[in-house]
């Protein structure tokens, strides 16, 4: 990652632009995962500007924007307010809820730096572990998370519209301070 990369919290005034980025990156990564109707329903429910404004204001959610030379490259979210799966035993824990980069920024090392930023933020807030879910049919994403120290500990169901998807629950213990 070069010196033109900035990682910063999202601002409430950026909710509409963040919603656009979220929709675009989800479609690029997962647009093929279900019917167009289910994907559209999911996007409307999860990635609306109103929902993003709410999440940005939520004290239990940290939404980060990644900029490369002033251009939005991606985003990520940590959520302390979600109930972790029972397989995640090391508590307190935080959900690494989202991490996406625009395709033009893949392969540049930005995601690895973003993950390290997220895990540092989790530790600063007292989390002893981080957890996430990843679609079982996303081998590249599974490899990425394993490379960054996450281990599969269980399964969960994630809905795209009304279409259930099998996900892995993955977790990582955070080093003690």
TrEMBL record:
InterPro entries per the UniProt record, alphabetical: Acyl_CoA_acyltransferase, Bact_Acetyltransf, GNAT_dom
Any single Pfam family the record assigns to this protein: Acetyltransf_1
Coiled-coil residue spans: none
Keyword Magnesium: no
Keyword Acyltransferase tagged: yes
Residue ranges of domain N-acetyltransferase in the record: 5-175
Record key words, sorted: Acyltransferase, Transferase
Protein name, as recorded: GNAT family N-acetyltransferase
Native source organism of the sequence: Pseudoxanthomonas japonensis
